[in-house]
Design a protein that fits this description.
The structure is a homodimer of 424-residue chains. By secondary structure, chain A is of the alpha/beta class. Chain A has helices spanning 6-18, 73-85, 95-106, 119-134, 176-186, 211-224, 277-282, 293-308, 311-332, 357-368, 387-407; strands spanning 40-44, 47-50, 55-58, 112-116, 138-142, 168-171, 190-195, 227-231, 254-257, 268-272, 337-340, 347-350, 371-372. In chain A, helix 5 runs parallel beside helix 6. Chain A starts with 5 loop residues before the first helix and ends in a 17-residue tail after the last helix. At the A-B interface, helix 1, strand 1, helix 2, helix 3 and strand 4 of A face helix 1, strand 1, helix 2, helix 3 and strand 4 of B.
């Protein structure tokens, strides 16, 4: 049905020749409706432009990094100013210290920071610190949660060994009893409990954890001496200005951060409580670009906006307006659209759509009308989603619902998802 | 003896509070002479400025990323121009395709590319591709070679498990017979042979491999069906404009690249031969910032300089002038300075200095005179090391040798290195 523009298709053909399987990872459009552009040439605020010159209101936000708006003036000015002085030098700049101090002041549980590049770096470091701290091996994780794409956590096992996932025990996210069962199964060998701030798994409804679940995780770690790790890479600073579980009254020992930390500039971090400092200081972990000064300048500027601005209230406001609008439109067109997760990180799934044919067709129709939604992954609001952008998006989605209704008889299951969907 | 400046010392004290153990990883000065600055505020060309305003001719070059000079005008202009259009978007930019095409055209063995951020990402990917391609587990590495700081390769075991290093077999770098022994030990389970372009291990003389060693590695992989991986992260584009072993007549199946690929901007890559394409396409590997467009623009500009300019001849010329100058000065002052490795990536070690007391004192005296050398890690030349910079450096090192001679009676072994040095 839909088809990407000519330039995008030409780029895909070239990409097939020089990238294995074409564009890979989370930026691949292989699991998205066909019309979605694979390549973008420009971003500003909440908008993207594809290689064929088509403009979009974007609710993917780079899958998280875009928190304040693409090309945010203050953030990018701070980045550019530091880049002109120096970025990757033979040692860090003083901004390393300033940024660590800023995060320690802002995130309640944190006494120290280690900066890295990938979110996966930070989640891997969390496991290393927990194992060094406890001298133990086992890690309790939630089944289906995404914590990166290193051999120990990539959701696809190709190229990995069973040893890469040794000593992992899984539980059902949000289920305090099942968490306790998993912790008991680890016996005296438990190094860490790892959880996302909320359940933001692909293909399923999102769910916020209860305060009881978070408190049980904390209590079980306190009881066993294991470390409590919350992986903030995707949700960090979109739920709160502090670590996400502070709202639930729980302070983790370690939190991993990335994506939005420098509003799109390459930076991630592990933050840790005092108790884990000695263990963290024994690790040897580093990367060629971990000392880069310019992304740290960008992070400091991002954190100034986070502390001093109303970005979070704007995210929530925009997310609520989008949610209310979609809800009304869906009902008017005779659909039940399940909207889960916090409004600023919404998941939209159609009722009665086990093979995602409706979700794909709806998103495809929205994309053709200049709005980028996601049919099976949580989306992201940014502070540049103002009323005008939400109004524009809702005008397009209303037409998309109508188009979906017209196509109901001819919808077919997206072949790309075959074999990937969770069983019901 | 030496002491860092007041601002640097104050920053270190602050760093101790908010970073575990202070600045970590390869950028830490904990294993360097005391006077070395831990923080830098500016870099330009081959020069660095520390937080106390002292200027240096820098032979560390960010430990590799600085290939063409800090703040290279053409590279940074390309970066800034793309940043203004868009960097971390909801998909890659067309530059992804252009960069992959450029590398495939430039690096003989390469048919495809995957882009990532850390050098460690690229070396980890190499192992994953080799294991996916062969369906086997074992990897033959050189003892003491550095391939990154993930749990499978960090030189310090804190926080890692024995399982992280499962199926690794070590051999002596450069020893074709020992390589064959290791390959035979893997039996039918060999996935890959991994080697650096030359032996650039810390604390020891560097050595270039013989053509026979490289050819044996290739032949053993061909015979067993394993993949030959050359880790170019540190040496890539400093030995050649192609993959380093092309000069030895050997084409690897996989090469990992990082550091200098975008002249200091955060980008790494795995390049692969056609034979490994199908396996690479089956992996799920990604990172929040792997699609960033601005570092790809910087890499394209860097590769234009690499292809079209005389950067490599200038690196070699500067390295040879430094080497000849140091050789003559050492002899004049009654020392034997062993200078190993290619001139553009030199290691300098004093004869009769098993605990590095001379090396430390010499580097400390050079640092006090405005030249950053390294007493136990290979150094790096960049294209901004012109005759003026080398002359300036040699004037300082001549005085440093004289100062070393005056201090001979009072030198003591650097305490920081205790327990780290290889046994002789």
């Amino acid at each position: 049905m839909g088809e990407a523009g000519r330039h995008d298709r030409e780029l895909r053909e070239r990409a097939e020749r020089v990238l294995p399987g074409g564009v890979g990872g989370h930026l691949s459009t292989r699991l998205l409706p066909e019309g979605y552009p694979q390549f973008y040439v420009r971003g500003k605020g909440a908008r993207l432009w594809d290689a064929d010159g088509r403009a979009y209101v974007d609710f993917l936000c780079g899958y998280g990094p875009n928190l304040l708006g693409y090309g945010h003036p203050a953030v990018d000015a701070a980045f550019a100013e530091q880049l002109a002085r120096g970025d990757t030098l033979s040692g860090p700049s003083p901004l390393l210290v300033e940024l660590a101090e800023t995060l320690v002041a802002q995130v309640s549980h944190a006494a120290w920071a280690i900066f890295c590049k990938n979110g996966t770096d930070a989640t891997t470091l969390a496991l290393m610190v927990a194992r060094a701290h406890t001298g133990r091996r086992k890690v309790v994780l939630a089944k289906g949660s995404y914590h990166g794409s290193a051999p120990w956590c990539t959701p696809v096992p190709a190229g990995t060994l069973p040893e890469d996932r040794a000593h992992q025990i899984h539980h059902r996210y949000g289920d305090a009893e099942d968490l306790e069962r998993a912790v008991r199964a680890a016996g005296a060998d438990l190094a860490a409990v790892v959880a996302s701030p909320f359940r933001h798994d692909a293909f399923v409804d999102q769910s916020l954890p209860s305060a009881e679940y978070a408190a049980r995780a904390r209590a079980l770690c306190d009881e066993t001496g294991a470390l409590l790790v919350v992986d903030e890479v995707r949700a960090g600073f979109r739920l709160a200005r502090d670590a996400s579980w502070r709202q639930l009254g729980v302070d983790p020992d370690l939190t991993s951060w990335g994506k939005a930390l420098a509003n799109g500039h390459a930076l991630s971090a592990l933050l840790g409580a005092e108790t884990a400092r000695a263990a963290a200081s024994r690790l040897y972990v580093t990367g060629s670009f971990w000392g880069q000064a310019a992304p740290m300048a960008a992070a400091l500027a991002t954190l100034r906006e986070i502390r001093g601005g109303d970005y979070l209230e704007r995210l929530v406001h925009a997310g609520e307006r989008l949610r209310e609008g979609l809800h009304a439109q869906a009902a008017a067109h005779g659909y039940v659209l399940r909207q889960s997760g916090p409004p600023q990180m919404p998941q939209i799934l159609f009722d009665g759509d086990p093979d995602f044919r409706r979700g794909f067709a709806f998103c495809e129709e929205a994309q053709r009308r200049g709005v980028l939604l996601h049919p099976w992954h949580n989306m992201f609001l940014c502070a540049a989603h103002g009323d005008a952008e939400i109004d524009e998006a809702l005008a397009a989605t209303d037409e998309a619902f109508a188009a979906l209704r017209r196509r109901e008889a001819t919808l077919s299951a997206p072949a790309a998802l075959a074999g990937l969907l969770p069983r019901h």
